[in-house]
Amino acid sequence: MSVTESMTRLQAQREALVEAALEHVPFDGWTKQALHAGAEDLDLAPGEVDRLLPNGIRQAIVIYVEMTDRKMIAALDEKGLENLKIRDRIATAVKTRLELVEGQKDTVRAALAFMTLPQNAALGLKLTHGTVDAMWVAAGDTSTDHNWYTKRMLLAGVYGSTLAYWLDDTSEGHADSWAFLDRRIGNVMQIPKITAKIGKAGKFAAAPFKMGAKIARCMPTPGRMRRQFGG
């Protein structure tokens, strides 16, 4: 077995363990207990948890987010975003991402709570960057200049605030969340040049992650969520 095949197999095992643990996270939170319960469901020995996820909960949440991002990309590829206006592409991307975890709100809340801990803040920002970057790529962004950072910073704000609203939304079909999303995107699209250099969907060379401090101001925190949405 080649090194590549071995790594692919290891990643598949890790993802299977995280998928199994998702059944237990709503009750146990993102904890070793949930991971061990998932391992038991897969008939894995207890020691397999530490072998597959040596970085523990942090690694498990990264895998969860990245798996969901891949599902989002696949779903958006089937939607034909190139036929939509830019604001509709972005709205569709955010909506699709949230719909993928519609039955996992408690799991998402627990992940957000874990990532708001000081020692995990940088990782949380990196994961947000990965998600919004995937959204812009799916929307057809080909920019490589300062607009690349601007678009991701702004979308991080839209995505973060909509996520916070959506988590507590009890309206039918999350209609209130989609109206909130539309308003937020409308505000963002008024910023000059935000739609510059958007073409057909394609790949581009991603620059290093340099906007952590900017996204941090956009990310939902418990205090900010209470001020914005009450509670």
TrEMBL record:
<comment type="function">
    <text>Membrane-associated protein that warps the membrane surface to access and bind aromatic isoprenes with high specificity, including ubiquinone (CoQ) isoprene intermediates and presents them directly to COQ7, therefore facilitating the COQ7-mediated hydroxylase step. Participates in the biosynthesis of coenzyme Q, also named ubiquinone, an essential lipid-soluble electron transporter for aerobic cellular respiration.</text>
</comment>
<dbReference type="InterPro" id="IPR012762">
    <property type="entry name" value="Ubiq_biosynth_COQ9"/>
</dbReference>
<comment type="pathway">
    <text>Cofactor biosynthesis; ubiquinone biosynthesis.</text>
</comment>
<keyword id="KW-0831">Ubiquinone biosynthesis</keyword>
<keyword id="KW-0446">Lipid-binding</keyword>
<dbReference type="Pfam" id="PF08511">
    <property type="entry name" value="COQ9"/>
</dbReference>
<dbReference type="InterPro" id="IPR013718">
    <property type="entry name" value="COQ9_C"/>
</dbReference>
<keyword id="KW-0809">Transit peptide</keyword>
<feature type="domain" description="COQ9 C-terminal">
    <location>
        <begin position="123"/>
        <end position="191"/>
    </location>
</feature>
<protein>
    <submittedName>
        <fullName>COQ9 family protein</fullName>
    </submittedName>
</protein>
<comment type="similarity">
    <text>Belongs to the COQ9 family.</text>
</comment>
